[in-house]
Amino acid sequence: MRRFLKVSYEQYRKDSDDGEENGELSKEYEDIILPRRATRCSAGYDFYAPRAFALEPGGQIKLATGIRAIMNEDEWLGLYIRSGHGFKFGVRLKNSVAVIDADYANALNEGHIQIAIYNGGDKLLRVEKGEAFAQGVFQKYLLTEDDNPRQSERLGGMGSTSSGN
Ligand SMILES: O=c1ccn([C@H]2C[C@H](O)[C@@H](COP(=O)(O)OP(=O)(O)OP(=O)(O)O)O2)c(=O)[nH]1
């Protein structure tokens, strides 16, 4: 069991910058493309920009992707910058690698994947709507023999399980 789905329009609207109900946003939502691999042996599922954006050097943006990832519980999805953008523009994910946990899909925000990127180079980056800008690789993770998670279920999104106690 492993697949990508769209979050609901309500969730997309809530998490989009403008958050407003308008024709443009619902068209944007309709047009969201599920991540796809470029070739038979591509490891990464390309994530396509739900809207066009431009990033000046030093600029940053957080994109609500409209996507949730369903996967097996011993897997995670690693998100990385699109290699070409990293090489040509010095663009990177703000958190270097985004760790998408298997139980995030059940969080109250429907597991809505957010991608934050930063232009660390000296050129303007323009990304068109529908252009690949990040890639996600499904991976397995291992447990320690005395593994003992602090809580069994995830409800919130980022930062919701931060206490070490
Ligand atoms: O760039 C990111 C990083 C994370 N997430 C989602 C998926 C992940 O499963 C969840 C929580 O992320 P993480 O565990 O890395 O966040 P945290 O702030 O370190 O801790 P917490 O587990 O408390 O949420 O947020 C994103 O959508 N985009």
From TrEMBL:
The keyword S-adenosyl-L-methionine does not apply. Residues 32-161 form the dUTPase-like domain. SUPFAM superfamilies: dUTPase-like. One of its GO terms (biological process) is dUTP catabolic process. Keywords: Hydrolase, Nucleotide metabolism. CDD domains: trimeric_dUTPase. GO terms for molecular function: dUTP diphosphatase activity; magnesium ion binding. It catalyses: dUTP + H2O = dUMP + diphosphate + H(+). This is dUTP diphosphatase.
